[in-house]
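The protein record quoted in full:

***
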Amino acid sequence: MQLKSITDYLESVAPLKYQESYDNSGLLVGEKSLDITGVLISLDCTEEIVLEAINEKCNLIIAHHPIVFGGMKRFNNANYVQRTIQKAIKNDIAIYAIHTNLDNVFTNGVNARIAERLGLINTRILRSKSNSLLKLATYCPSDNCDAILDALFAAGAGHIGNYSNCSFSSSGIGTFKPLAGSNPAIGSVGNQSSEEEVKIEVVVPYHLQNQVINQLLSTHPYEEVAYEWYPILNSNQFVGAGIVGDFPNPISEIDFLDLLKKTMELEVVKYTPITKNIQRVSICGGSGQFLIEDAKHSNSDAYVTSDIKYHDFFDAEKQLMICDIGHYESEKYTIDLLYDILREKFSTFAILKTRIDTNPVKYFQ
């Protein structure tokens, strides 16, 4: 199986256009034509992970965190990043990162997996991502409307929330005047013509823009296809940062901390105490200081994340319990998530989960 088949599938689950501007998700090492013998999944990519891939005869590492964030000017073994990249290249091992784009999807996302472990219901995106939707408007003869709609739907257009094949059509009169060089079957050069047409409007996720327009152009009967793209300011309710959900019934502060510690397999939890029961919980795997205000505005009783600085804990203002469970600890189940995603699609392919704990932080008890 070629690497492209795997990366294309992962990017259908978590499109690269959903990653944050600072991120570096995608194929970092290797060529898409590479024949893959096995996949090793990890949270981080380190020298030890590359060695494990070699020993397990896996020539693709899929890691949540990119081993390279910024530009690299030298490869001289000066640090673990350079050594890891060199070891991978020398052993023909590809490295693929799926980071904030996997954080930012609701279905099969990092935060959804945490919410599932905690038993939350009625989950939804905490901060929806804007500028991720477009509207396509095009015009066609009424006899071709159904065929064009089917093609657009097949390319991923017309999906709104829990509904697919969504569109709006209206009838009107289109006018045109053939110029020199136009198709003679259309009409006489220089003569004004008109035709009954249907205007089709569909919503399109930004990352599917190219494939949707390619389907339109290949299906449309006109020599010159008229269409327009419109940006939609509506936030995409299925794309964005964090998740918020509810317990079926409120639980005490201590019971919540105990549940959090057990289900996330934690050694320690840093938190801001409050004196109320916990029912609504916000979640952000990884560094989540930027969502504290969103968690408060969602009326959450607790916010589970990591990398909270000392002064940021004051932002809780006794409105919610901020729980810092550690960066690695908040994202370690991403390995299981990626395994499940790939196993569902490639059931007969060698997919392994790393046995190495890459957490650079330890706790002395």
